[in-house]
Structure formats: structure tokens, C-alpha cells
Automatic annotation (TrEMBL), chain A:
Transmembrane spans: 20-43, 64-86, 134-167, 187-208
Localization per Swiss-Prot or TrEMBL: Cell membrane; Membrane
Protein name: Osmoprotectant transport system permease protein
Principal subcellular localization: membrane
This protein's record includes keyword Membrane: yes
Record-linked PROSITE patterns: ABC_TM1 (PS50928)
Native source organism of the sequence: Enteractinococcus coprophilus
Domain of life: Bacteria
From TrEMBL, chain B:
Domain of life of the native organism: Bacteria
SMART domains: AAA
Pfam families from the UniProt entry: ABC_tran
Lineage of the species this protein comes from: Bacteria, Bacillati, Actinomycetota, Actinomycetes, Micrococcales
Record-linked InterPro entries: AAA+_ATPase (IPR003593), ABC_osmolyte_uptake_ATP-bind (IPR051921), ABC_transporter-like_ATP-bd (IPR003439), ABC_transporter-like_CS (IPR017871), P-loop_NTPase (IPR027417)
Entry protein name: ABC-type quaternary amine transporter
Organism whose genome encodes this protein: Enteractinococcus coprophilus
Residue ranges of every copy of the ABC transporter domain listed in the record: 2-237
Keyword Nucleotide-binding found: yes
EC number in record: 7.6.2.9
Length: 225, 269
């Protein structure tokens, strides 16, 4: 405990660094996935077979990005991007790629999960395409999107730790440092803070869902009765 | 008046739903399209608000070809009720009803006021207005669907098997309710069903369709019963199963109506 108190400033810096990189990566990854996933969803309902296949290719290719091992990507990106080794942007971009890869299929599935009857009757009411997307599809796909986003969020927070291996400072630095110095207190502190941060992100998302989708609790209650 | 002129419809995959279909639907009355599944009745209904566009022929509303109208604007001027109410689960009942008013640019406060009145008209009290659709029963949801389709006072009301997903008692209630509303409102209603009882109960004009969208007969329920045009119609309206061939028997000094199997159907006054 003494060590934690004595190093509170540094821990605070690392925690802050970890928080903002994760938050931006999750946010950007989500927005990118929303754009690409929604496009794939539109292409999938085309009456031309080649276009429908293109949609499948986009979804598979995006998801495949997740299989690129993280450590090599962290090492290669600085070379490709030419940003210099210690620039946190390298890690940020890598995390955006992973968040995006995990999220794309979630977006497509979420849009497909919107009941056809609701979509159909909304068109009959006279929603135009933009209104249909904004006021019907997006809010109704949101619960499934949120479920995937929670997975992405936890995964991003933990994945960022690996960035410490290439020298980008974050909570993962406490593991690398602790191992080098054979100092368990520092490692445990790192583990605890990382888990706490992941839980905090999850809680924020959960609460945002409750506030933005009050109708969901009505739906759940109706399902139980 | 809605007029189909030699309308044909072939889907992109080559299936033909309709060929050379012509029909006039008079204003301020109820026309029921009835037929077995695959007879194209839903396609006909959906082509009136351009959810489907015919590949041949024309559809005219009050002598104007709807192919020249913007589909979005056309849909906003028509009421539509479908089998599953298709309400927006994330919006409260009152806002669901207000949908078409809001799309037509009516300010929110006024839209809510009018929606509230319309909900009362279809028999849903104010305690339900702030609820979400999932908190209502199937019959109540269908009433909300009807309120939503009528709130902007459209001339035309399209109904696609609107009562077939609710239980028989609620179905009869909703049917009576619709008859009462129609007496008051005098809309041009086009109603699709596969249930001949429903067609006879609601239709001023009943259109019996065969597979492929071919018209077997058009007429009032009395026309169909008294002068069925062909065997298909006789069978479809139940004249051949005995349920509609009624006889009178005397019992205890009163005249009892029985069906072909001798089962009592009612009393003759």
C-alpha cells in the first residue's frame, strides 16, 4: 500500500493515459463499424447477386482483421505509418482496427434483428430512407449493438496493456516494469486498475443504455410476464 | 375512387403475381379483397400506396395516376393497418399514433392532442397513452394501429388482415368497432382477408380472387350468396360445405333455422 500511495501521481497519469486511449479507440472503432456495417447491410438486400456477395466479403474481411496478432501489429504499424516508435497514435490505431473488426458483424446482425413488420409498417407510414434509418433502424438496432460494444470495450481496455511492450505508457507499463524488477505489488496494482477500468467502462455503457433505451425495460418486463 | 387498369406484376425473380387486373373501388365504402393465399391480394393492397409498383398497367386514385406521385407523400396521405400492428416498440403509444401527423409536419403538441382524441375514439383510455406497445395486449395494439392509420384523417384506409392475429372474441370486437367507426367516418376502406366471414361482415363490395390474381366474382355479399358466378365462388363462400345451406324447422311453435347437418343456427323472427 505504501508503494501505491507513494506512486499515486504516476498511477494517476497511467490510468488517465489508459482511459483516453481506450475511450477514443472504442468510439472511433464503433463509428467506423457503423458506417461499414450499415453499408454492408444495405448491399446485402440488393437484388443483384454480385452485390450481395460483395457485402459478405466486406463483413468477412473486416472480421478477419481481428485475427492479426496484436504484438506484430504494434511493431509493424509505426514503420507503416512513419509516426515514430513512442507515438501513442500507433497503439491507438491498432486498437481502432481491433474494435472495428469485432464490431462490424455486430452492427450487421443488429440491423437484421430489427423486426421486418416494424420496418414495413414504418415505410407504409411514409418515413423516407433517412428518417427510417435514424428514427427506426438505429434505435431498434441499438440494444444488440450495445451488447457487442460492451465486449469491444472490455477487450480494448485489456488489449491496450500490450502496448506497454513497445514502450507506450499505460497501465500495462506496471506489468512490464513489475516483471523486470520482480516486484509483485506493482504487477497486482496494474491488474487491479485494469480490471477496475474495464468494469467502469462497462458500467458507463450499461447506464447509457438504460437512459437512452427506457423502452427496453418495458419490453423485458412484458417478456417475463 | 381507386381504379386498377390492366395491372400486372412480375417480381424480379420472374414470379408473376398479377396479370391484366382491372377493378374499380368506389369511395366512402368498404371493399374486401378475399381469396386463398397466393392470390395476390396483399400485392394489390400494397400497390395502392406504392409499397409495390406494378410492372404493367395503371392505378388511379380519383382519376390521377399514382405512378406520377411521390411514393413517400402518397403513403403519408393514406392510412395502413397490417396484421401485426407493426408499432414502434421504442415509442410510447401516443407517439406511435402521432407518427403520420409528425411526418406531415404537424407540431408535436397538436399531434399529441389529436392522437389522444383518436385513441379515445378507438376505445383506449388515457391510462394507456403513455405506455409502450409491449405493455399492451394484442387487441389493444391493433386498436393503436387503427388509431395511427386514422389520426391524420386520410381518405383511404388500407387494411391487410388486421385482425387475424388476435383471438376470435377480440376479433369480433374489433370488427364491430370498425363497422361503427366506418358508419361515422365513411372512409374508402380496402380490406384484405382470407376469411369469408370477415369479408361478408365488413364488405359493401366483396372481390373473390383466385390464385394468380384472377377475379372470380365482384359483388355485394348478397350477390355472392344469391348468384355465385362459378363453382370456385360457391365453394369459397361455403355454399358447398353445408354451413350456409339453411333450412327452417318447427320446434315448440317457433321456427328454428338449421344447417344442412341439422345443427341449429338460430331462430327466425
Amino acid at each position: 500500500m505504501n508503494w501505491v500511495v507513494a506512486n499515486a501521481d504516476r498511477l494517476g497519469d497511467l490510468l488517465w493515459q489508459h482511459t483516453w486511449i481506450s475511450a477514443i479507440a472504442i468510439g472511433l472503432g464503433f463509428v467506423l463499424a457503423l458506417v461499414v456495417g450499415w453499408s454492408a447491410y444495405i448491399l446485402r438486400s440488393s437484388h443483384r447477386k454480385a452485390v450481395r456477395q460483395l457485402s459478405g466479403v466486406i463483413i468477412s474481411a473486416s472480421s478477419l482483421l481481428y485475427t492479426v496478432p496484436s504484438l506484430p501489429l504494434f511493431v509493424i504499424l509505426p514503420t507503416i505509418l512513419g509516426l515514430g516508435w513512442l507515438n501513442p497514435l500507433n497503439v491507438l490505431i491498432a486498437l481502432v482496427i481491433y474494435a472495428f473488426a469485432l464490431m462490424v458483424r455486430g452492427v450487421v446482425d443488429a440491423l437484421h434483428a430489427v423486426p421486418d413488420t416494424v420496418r414495413d409498417s414504418s415505410i407504409a407510414c411514409g418515413f423516407n430512407k433517412l428518417q427510417l434509418g435514424l428514427y427506426v433502424m438505429l434505435p431498434l438496432a441499438a440494444p444488440v449493438m450495445l451488447a457487442t460494444l460492451r465486449v469491444v470495450s472490455v477487450s480494448t481496455v485489456s488489449l491496450l496493456s500490450i502496448g506497454a511492450l513497445i514502450g507506450v505508457e499505460n497501465l500495462g507499463s506496471l506489468f512490464t516494469n513489475g516483471f523486470n524488477r520482480n516486484f509483485p505489488t506493482e504487477i497486482i496494482t496494474g491488474v487491479v486498475l485494469t480490471i477496475a477500468l474495464a468494469l467502469l467502462f462497462d458500467l458507463v455503457l450499461l447506464m447509457a443504455g438504460r437512459v437512452l433505451m427506457p423502452w427496453q425495460s418495458a419490453l423485458r418486463a412484458a417478456g417475463e410476464s | 375512387m381507386i381504379e386498377f387498369r390492366s395491372v400486372g406484376k412480375q417480381f424480379a425473380d420472374g414470379t408473376r403475381a398479377l396479370a391484366d387486373f382491372s377493378l374499380t373501388i368506389p369511395s366512402h365504402s368498404t371493399t374486401v379483397l378475399v381469396g386463398p393465399s397466393g392470390c395476390g391480394k396483399t400485392t394489390l393492397l400494397r400497390s395502392i400506396n406504392r409499397m409495390e409498383d406494378p410492372t404493367e398497367g395503371q392505378i388511379l386514385i380519383d382519376d390521377h395516376d399514382i405512378a406520377r406521385r411521390d411514393p413517400i407523400q402518397l403513403r403519408r396521405s393514406i392510412g395502413y393497418v397490417m396484421q401485426h400492428a407493426g408499432l414502434l416498440p421504442h415509442r410510447r403509444v401516443i407517439d406511435n399514433v402521432a407518427t403520420q401527423l409528425r411526418l406531415n409536419g404537424v407540431p408535436k403538441a397538436e399531434a399529441r392532442r389529436r392522437s389522444s382524441e383518436m385513441l379515445e375514439t378507438v376505445g383506449l383510455g388515457s391510462s394507456l397513452h403513455r405506455k409502450y406497445p409491449s405493455q399492451l395486449s394484442g387487441g389493444q395494439q391493433q386498436r393503436v394501429g387503427v388509431a395511427r392509420a386514422l389520426v391524420h384523417d386520410p381518405n383511404i384506409l388500407l387494411m391487410d388482415e388486421p385482425f387475424s392475429a388476435v383471438d376470435p372474441i377480440v376479433r369480433a370486437e374489433l370488427r364491430d368497432e370498425l363497422l361503427r367507426l366506418q358508419q361515422e367516418l365513411k372512409k374508402t376502406i380496402v380490406f384484405v382477408t382470407h376469411d369469408i366471414e370477415e369479408a361478408f361482415a365488413l364488405g359493401d363490395q366483396v372481390v373473390v380472387l383466385k390464385t394468380g390474381g384472377e377475379i372470380a366474382q365482384v359483388g355485394s355479399p348478397v350477390d355472392l350468396l344469391a348468384r355465385p358466378a362459378e363453382a370456385f365462388v360457391e365453394e369459397f363462400i361455403g355454399l358447398q360445405q353445408g354451413g350456409r345451406r339453411l333450412r327452417v324447422q318447427d320446434a315448440y311453435g317457433r321456427r328454428i333455422v338449421v344447417d344442412e347437418h341439422g345443427r341449429p343456427a338460430g331462430v327466425l323472427e
